[in-house]
Amino acid sequence: MKKPTSLVQTLAVQSQLNLPGTAGRLLKQIRDLEGLAPRFIETGLVQTVDRPASLNTRLSGISTSFATRPLAGGFLFVSAAVRMDLRFEQNALATESTDSTSVIDDIDFLDQSKRLQLIEVRQAYELAARALKQEILPQILLIEGPLVLNRSMVPLGKSSEHAKEYELAHEVICNFWKEHRSLLFPWNPQGAIVAGIATQRLGAIAAISQQDLRTPDGQKQLLRCDLPNPDALGDLNKQLASISGIGEKRFVRGILGTHGRTAAFHMNVQTPRMEPASLVDEMGVVGFHYRSAVRADPLLVQVLGNNDCWTKERLNDLTGILIASTVQREKYAVPVPFQLASQQLRGLKPFLNQYCLAMRQELKHREIEDSWLSDIENSI
Questions:
Q1: For residues 289 and 252, is the Cβ–Cβ distance under 8 A?
Q2: Each residue of 208-234: pLDDT tens digit?
Q3: How many CA atoms lie within 13 A of 21 on its CB side?
Q4: What gap in Å lies between CA 317 and CA 63, rounded to an integer?
Q5: pLDDT tens track for 80-89
Q6: What domains does the chain contain, in order, with CATH numbers?
Q7: Is the pTM of this model over 0.90?
C-alpha cells in the first residue's frame, strides 16, 4: 500500500523538480526581451520622451472606487468619485479645488460587477462636466478608467438594473462630449484634453507588434505620425513569434523603458464596436502606453482623435506632462491627482462597514416598519 503524502511533502518535491526549468524559461524570456527592446526603439514603436524641466499646467484628475458588503442575500454598495484640481507653477504644486459624488444602494449578486463599473464611469463623467463649468478650466483632465465603453459592458437584456445603468452611463458620456465640445480638444485645438488612464488592458501594442507593419492592414492600426521606420523593421515579426507566449504585461514592461511611450494606435480599429458608437465613429479613440520610472508599471492612455488631430510633438508633450506628474503609489505609479483622490476614497470601506452594521440593526428591530404601520393604522 502506498504511503500517504502530505501537501507539504508534495510541494517540496515539486519545487525541487520545477525550479531549474522555470528559472531557465524566465531567464530566456528576459534575454529575448533585452535583445528585442533596442529593435523597438530603432523602428519607432517605442520612443523616449523628454520630461519637461519646468512643469506649468493645470491638471485635474478624477478617481473612482466602490466597496460592497453582503447583506440579506444580496449586497450593499457604496460607489464614489473624487476630483482633484491641481496647479503646477515652476514645478511647485498647489491644490485649487476638489469635488466629489457618491451613491449608496443595495445590489443583486448577478448584477454586481458590470453594474458597479458603469456607475464608476457615470460618476467620473458627472464630475468632469462639473469641472468644465468652473471659471478656470483645467488644461488636462484625467479620468482613472476607460474613456469610452467596451462592447463587453453592453447588457444582454433590457429589463435588468445593469441595462438601466448602462443607458444612464451611455447618456452621460454622449451629453458630456456633445455639450462641451467647444471647450475640448480635438474640436477646439486649444481646449482641454480629456484622457482616460488605465492600469489594465496592456495587450493592444503586443497584438499590433506581432502583425506585419509593412502592409497597409498593419499600418492602419497606428497613428500616421507614429508609423514605424520600414528600413528598421526587417525580420522583427519573426523574433516576436518566439516570445508570443510570455504574457502581455511582461512584454510591455520589457520593451518600454523609463520615460518612454509606445507608438500611438487607433483603439477603435484594434478593439472595434466601442460605445458610444456615434462619438467613436466621428472622432476615433487613440491609445498609447507610457512608463514613468524603472519600478513603475506601464499605463494605458486613451484620448479622442485621429490622424488629423494628433502630431508626434503633441503626443510627446502630453506624455511628458504625465511622466512629470506621475508618482509611485503602493504597487504602481499613477498621476498625482489620483494619488490625492485615493486618500479620500480609502474611507469607503470603513464607512460601508458602519452603514451595514446600522442597517442590520434596523432590519433586526424593524422600528422603521413599525412606524410605517402605525401611521397606516392611525389613518384608518
A1: yes
A2: 666 666 666 767 788 888 888 777 676
A3: 5
A4: 23
A5: 999 999 999 9
A6: 57-197+339-355 (3.30.420), 199-332 (no CATH)
A7: no
